[in-house]
Amino acid sequence: MDQRNNVTEFILLGLTQSIQGQKILFVVFLLCYIVTMAGNLLIIVTVIISPSLDSPMYFFLGNLSFMDSIYSTAITPHMIIDLLYEKKTISFHACMSQLFIAHLSGGSEILLLVAMAYDRYVAICKPLHYSTIMSKRMYTLLLLLSWVGGFLHAVVKLFSVYKLPFCGPNVIDHFGCDMYPLLKLACTDTYIIGLTVIANDGTICVGIFVLLLISYGVILRSLRNVSQEGKRKALSTCGSHITVVVFFFVPCIFMYVRPPTTLPIDKSLTVFYTVVTPLLNPLIYTLRNAEMKNAMRKLWTRKRN
Predict the structure, then answer these.
(1) Which helix (H) or strand (E) holds 171?
(2) Residue 222: CB partners within 8 Å, gap ≥ 6?
(3) Is the distance from CB of 33 to CB of 80 less than 8 angstroms?
(4) CB atoms within 10 A of CB 249
(5) Interatomic CA distance for residues 109 and 72, integer angstroms
(6) Which of 28, 131, 140, 248 lies most in the core, judged by the most C-beta atoms within 10 Å?
(7) CA gyration radius for the chain?
(8) Which region holds residue 281: left if phi is over 0, alpha if psi is between -120 and 50, else beta?
(9) pTM greater than 0.85 (yes/no)
(10) Mean local confidence (pLDDT), 218-236
(11) DSSP state of 22
């Protein structure tokens, strides 16, 4: 730790100061986390075991569930445990680790959603060349690029915060470690760093969100010449993808495309994309995907027998 930094831990104010409210949130978030992990683990196991899901789309879906699990685990368990204590603290290095892991998995997930959109574009718009273009080498490379991009994004975030001097106060009006609350506590002018966060995260979120919407628009437009059965299947798949994209990017855009400051609504938005979104993703993909539901049914039947 930098010699200018005499802060060894941060005090978190959490979501609410009400004891009764904390007890209710503890039960709700614990149940959400258990369901999230179970749902994502079920998707991962189903994709690995089921021969019928041996395609790039399900390969990406399994990895999306893995990223969701990491992203949720980076923040949610600590938040749940803190709800049991009056004084909520996190060490400096645990705070930095939380920041790094959250941005690693979140950044990787953004790029994976782009890869999934590209996979659907090739499958629907260039079906005759799909197996050639989306070879095992190609989709493995796209996954690797997603993780590398997320890693570089997280390293930049960690470096920009870790080098700052924290000399007090050490109270974070949040339930976890994120960029703006930490910049607010630094004992130096962080305005320029805040602008780089907007330029980096804001530009990435808006640019990729618009790109994804355009790509899915092109995909949906190309369905005019597809059979009714093919159209129904493609609409179901693309509908799931678009729903996940909107749930992921809208809070992200609101968080980072604005002046570098903290707002009361930030806690609710963070809860949404760390607790609610990883919980909804498995439900969205399983309930709207007949092949996934059939594979899970076969897996369940096999285990019972």
Answers:
(1) strand 171-172
(2) 124, 125
(3) yes
(4) 21
(5) 12
(6) 248
(7) 21
(8) alpha
(9) yes
(10) 76
(11) H
Residue with tokens 């000399």: 167
Task: Give the HSE-up count for residue 161: Cα atoms under 13 Å, Cβ half-sphere.
Answer: 24
Instruction: Enter the tokens of residue 133.
Output: 């273009």
Structure tokens at 211: 């790109």
Return the SS3 of 83. coil
Q: Which stretches of 126-227 are DSSP H helices?
A: 130-133, 136-162, 179-185, 191-197, 203-221
Query: pLDDT tens digits, residue range 12-63?
Result: 988 888 889 999 999 999 999 999 999 999 899 888 988 888 889 899 999 9
Other CB atoms closer than 10 Å to residue 126's CB: what's the count? Answer: 13
Q: Please give the backbone phi and psi of residue 10, each rounded to the nearest 5 degrees, phi first.
A: -115, 145
Residue type, 283: L
Instruction: Give all strands of the β-sheet with 9-12 in edge-to-edge order.
Output: 88-91, 9-12, 171-172
How far apart CA 64 and CA 115 sit, in angstroms, is 11
Beta strands in 45-121 (DSSP E): 88-91
Cβ pair 9, 170 in contact under 8 A: yes
DSSP 3-state of 9: strand
Q: How far, in Å, CA of 280 to CA of 248, rounded? A: 11
Strands 9-12 and 171-172: parallel
